[in-house]
Structure formats: C-alpha cells, structure tokens
C-alpha cells in the first residue's frame, strides 16, 4: 500500500480521470472505504439524496470458495 501525500491527490485524480476505475478510486480517497468494501458496494446501499453510503458487505477471495461476500470489518 502506498499513501498519497495530500499535496499530490489532485494530480492523481487528474491522471485517473476517464478510467473505468476512477469512481472506485474517488470513493477510496474521500471515504476511507477499504477495497473489499468498495467492490461489494450495491446501489441499494447508496442514498444520493441523503449523501449516505452504507457499508454492509465486503468481498473476500478464498481458495476454497473463490469470491464471496462477507460482513465488513
């Protein structure tokens, strides 16, 4: 994991703009959500009118079961 200095966040955002991963990066940068939580996010847990995202699930990958959904940390 690499921590981006505050003075470089704007530069990172501009370089990623337009990429498919851009919305996920923005969520991670400005909400503190973990990668597994972002990947498990569903529209039912997003309330745009109230500006609320509910973190209810996280993705987990195991050798035995592959990708599964679990409770977040």
Q: Give the amount of beta strand, in percent.
A: 15-25%
User: In angstroms, what separates the terminal alpha carbons?
Assistant: 18 Å
Spatial order of the strands in the main sheet? 1-2
Helical content class? 25-40%
Mean pLDDT: 93
Main features:
3 helices, 73 residues, two-stranded antiparallel sheet, globular, alpha+beta, 4 strands
Question: What do you see in this structure?
Answer:
The chain is α+β, with helices and mostly antiparallel strands and 73 residues long. It contains 3 helices and 4 strands. The strands form 2 sheets. A two-stranded antiparallel ribbon has the order 1-2. It has a two-stranded antiparallel sheet with strand order 3-4. The longest helix is centred in the middle third of the chain and has 10 residues, at 22-31. The protein is globular.
